[in-house]
Structure formats: C-alpha cells, structure tokens
Amino acid sequence: MKLVTRYVVREHVGPLLFALSALTSLLMLQYVARQLANLAGKGLPWSAIGKFFVLSLPFTIAMTMPMAVLVATLFTFGRMAAEHEITAFKASGVRVRTLMLPVLTCAFLLSIAMVAFNDQVLPRANHELRILQNDIAKTKPTLALRDQAMNAITDQFFIRIARSDANTNKMYDVVIYDLTKGPERKTIYADSGVFSLTANGQDLLLQLFDGYTQEFVRGDPKRLQRSFFVDQTVKVRGITRGFESTSKDDFRSDREMTVCEMHRRYAADALEFRRVRQEYIMYASRLVAPGTKTLKAPRDRPAEEGLSRFYCVTLPSLFLPKKAKAQAPVVSTTPPAPVVTPQGAPVIAQPGDTLTKDTLGVPVPTPPPAVTLSAPIPPAVDTMTVYRGAMNAADAQLVASREGLDSLTVEIHKKFALSFACLVFVLFGPPIALRFPRGGVGVTIGVSIGVFGLYYVCLMGGEALADKGLVPPSIAMWIANAIFTVTGVVLLWRVESTTDTSRGGGIRDWWADRGARRALAAQMKREQAAKTVGKGPAAAVGA
User: Fold this and answer.
1) In what order do the strands lie in the sheet with 157-165?
2) Which one of 69, 119, 383, 509 has the minimum C-beta count within 10 Å?
3) CA Rg, the chain, in Å?
4) Cα gap 355→352, rounded to integer Å
5) Could you report how far apart the first and last alpha carbons of the chain are, in Å?
C-alpha cells in the first residue's frame, strides 16, 4: 500500500503546481488590467511596481489554491479512470476510498498550511498593499503640457497653449483659467511664456510676456477688471509629488488583522455591545405600557468568538508550556496604632467657639451649627421624551456595534472556510472524475469553473447575509463547505456501491445513456399498461 500511496500522491503534484501557476497568472493579469490606470504615467520606480505585484500575490493564492486542488484531483482521477488504472485497482481489491485516503491526508495538511498562510501572511500583505496603494494615489506625475488642448494643472487651474517648444519650454498664445479664488475667477492671456519647476520639483513657475488679466472684482459679475502686463510670473504650488513610501501606519481593517488580533478586538467590542444593550433594555422597559410581559431587544452576542478562542487560546494551552503566574503581593492587615493626645495639651479655640470637655477632661471646641441650603427647583422635563431619545441613541449604537462584531466574525470564519475548501474539493472531485473518465481536459476545466463559481457565489452570498445580521456568520461562511461535503459523500457512496468497474465515457455518452434509459422505462410502462388493459376484458368474459 505504501507504493500505491506514493504513486497516487505523486500523480497529483504536477497537475497541482501547473493549475496553481496557471490560475494565479490569469487572476493576476485581470488584477493588473484593473489597476493599470492607477499605475501608468506616474513615474513610479520599478521597486514600487514590483512590490505592488508581489503584495498582490497572497490574496490571489488564497483564492486559487482550492480551485487548483480541485483541478488536480479531477485531472488525476479522470486520467487514471480513462487509462483503466481504477479498474485494475478495483480488480486487485483496492477500493476508491482507499485511493482517496492519501490524497485526503495531504489535503488536510495543505488546509492546515493554508490556515497559517491566511492568518499570518495574507493580513500583513493586505496591510502593506493598502499603504502602498495610498502612497501611489498621493503621487502626482511630472508636468506635460499638450498643444491645442485644455491642460488641467489642478482641479481649479487650467492652461491652454497654441504651440510649445519642448527643448526650451517656451509657450505661445497662452490662456490661463484660474478658479482658485472662487467667485473672483481670473483669466490670463499672454503672447508667450516659459514654464519651469522650482528647485523642490513640486511647484510650477509660469513666466508670461505681453498680455493682460481679466478678473471679476470681489465676485461681482457686473464689474470686470482688466490689467495689462509686460512680464508676469504665476506660481502654482504642489502640482507634482514624487513617490514617497510611508514608514508606519498603525490602522488595520479586519482584512489586515490576524485571527488573534480580531479575537481581542471582538472581546472588547462585545463587552461594549452588552453594556449598550443593557441601557437599551432599561430605557425600553420604562417606555412600554404597564403589564407588558415581553420586551423585544436586539439579539445578544457572545463575549468571545468560539472558533477564534479555540485557535488562539485552547490550542496554544495544549501545546505550549504554561506561563508561571506572578505571586500576589502580601497585604498587611495590622490596624494602625491609635494616636493619643496627651492630657494637658493646650487647645486653641477660635473666636466665637464654645469649649466643651471630653471624657478625659480635655477641652474640645464645639463645631459650628450646620447651614442648610435649599436646592434650586429644576425645570419640568418630559421624562418619556428623554427616555425615548436615549433608547434611540442606544439603538443606533447597537446597530453599528453589531455590524462591527458580525464583520469580525465573518472574516474569522472565512479564513478557515477557504482553507478547508481544499479538503472539501478533494472529497468532491474524484466521484465526478470517475463518472466521466473520458471527458478529458474540457470536463476538468468546465467542472472546476462551475463548481468553484458556485462555491464562490455561496461564500459571497453568505457573507452579505451575515453582514446584514440575517444569518449567523458561523453558518453563512460554512454552508458552502457543508453542501459540497454532503454532495461529495453521496457521490462517493454511489461510486462505491456500483458493481461494474467502468463508469462509461464522457458527458455525451452519459447523455446518450440517460436517453436510452428513459426510453426503455417508457416502453416498459407502455407494455405494463397494455397487459393491464388486456386482463380487464378477459376477466369480464370469465365472469
């Protein structure tokens, strides 16, 4: 069996690597096509462009690895069935589930590795990619003026030139539209000019010759002021900015955090959610009619997310050594020594105080009489209005807190669901491949695209329902895995329960067999109906 195990596993390695590289390349090309407009024409260094593509790989691999596993499984078992290797194994007493066992074991180990990849590598790559995209968005390209066109220097400064000389940066027939002052918009006409950048490379200097300026005085459309000039310099600040890498950014979204980081944030947010929920219940109970037995309140959330607690708390406690707890400090409970005033100590009385004597005969000043102050009468307040406003505020805070908790739970479960999709597809692929052994690469690609498309739709649909609070996130994220697992088990049981050693050809043969079976069933039904009709008159004659 060791030889069979090594053979089956080795047959999967090549198709898996090929499918992973091909699918990753296809998705990367699609991603590059969508991001090309944000990268082109900004003068980015090659290091930034290479870093952009490298940081985009982890997300692509996380999506393509389950699909590559499905393609490899379909291709390998389909080839083994087409070449009658499955028939030979069955004749030797080796069942299909025995052949699938080493593949399932490898798929389980791959799923564990993908959990670590999605938990550690993917969040860090997403965080660095977001920072890099923000830096690229802030980068402004170098200035390039086009002839006979409206050049938008900024969103409020435009320039149009008839022609220009690229060697000397000289411009002819220049028209400038300056909208930086709002209503006091300005138009500048010049016969010629020269443009250049300042020493810092970020500001534009326009030296204009022989022209005039038109502008509205204080935004009044009825007052137009015209000023003539021989030489005038216009400076536009911040038109270019080179690429600058951000060194530190502490903000992290849910897709940029590890499972344990989301677990800690969930615990803190759940504590706040429960506090606000208690406030909501308190105010709502004061607004309901007397005698009401039930009160509708938002659904409570657990103090900790179960899957993340198992991953971050339970598993480390089983495999890692326990940390020694610090000993609590010893607090002395000895009461302080009483302070005794010696007899005969003089007591200084303030003017107006009356001296009395205590049990030891020491004079003690009498405290002044207490002064009673009457509190101001507060204005009348409608308590019901106050309670209703507080309840509405608590309800709005609950909605925002609930969305945050559900989003964290969805992201936690999605990391594990995508990882274990590798195991699910290994269970689902072989029965399909054995059913259409001569389908070839076309069936492999078609089934893979259809299955993973359906899986992705179920995953995204479940995520949308969970974000809206309609379905618990633990169910929404795992429903696709559960459906395909049950389907794979049923198909595997049907394959194992058959007595023949060959499952036929491709989809065309299967469709022809299906038509023949349906025709045979219809013919048998007609014959049975004819026999029933023939027995009826014969029974009547005998009577």
Assistant:
1) 150-154, 157-165, 170-178, 186-197, 204-216, 224-236
2) 383
3) 40
4) 10
5) 70
Question: CA-to-CA distance for 502 and 152, rounded, in angstroms?
Answer: 70
Return the amino acid letter for 412.
Answer: I
Q: What is the pLDDT of residues 190-238, one digit of tens each?
A: 999 988 877 776 778 888 999 999 888 776 777 788 889 999 888 888 7
Q: How far apart are CA 163 and CA 161, in angstroms?
A: 6
The secondary structure of 444-513, three-state, reads: HHHHHHHHHHHHHHHHHHHHHHHHCCCCCHHHHCCHHHHHHHHHHHHHHHHHHHCCCCCCCCCHHHHHHH
Q: What is the 8-class DSSP label of residue 241?
A: B
Q: Please state the φ and ψ torsions of residue 337, each to the nearest 5 degrees.
A: -70, 135
pLDDT at 538 exceeding the cut of 60 = no
* Rounded Cα gap, residues 57 and 125, in angstroms: 9
Tell me how far CA of residue 74 lies from CA of 37, 71, 523, 541, in angstroms. 38, 5, 36, 63
What is the DSSP code string of 258-285? -HHHHHHHHHHHHHHHHHHHHHHHHHHH
What is the mean pLDDT of the segment spanning 482-499?
82
**463 contacts 410 by C-beta, under 8 angstroms:** yes
What element of type H or E holds 216? strand 204-216
Residue keyed to tokens 């950048």: 197
Mean of the pLDDT values across residues 455-462? Answer: 87
Largest distance between two CA atoms of the chain: 143
The amino acid sitting at 399 is V
pTM: 0.67
pLDDT digits 0-9 by tens, 278-300 = 888 888 887 776 666 666 777 77
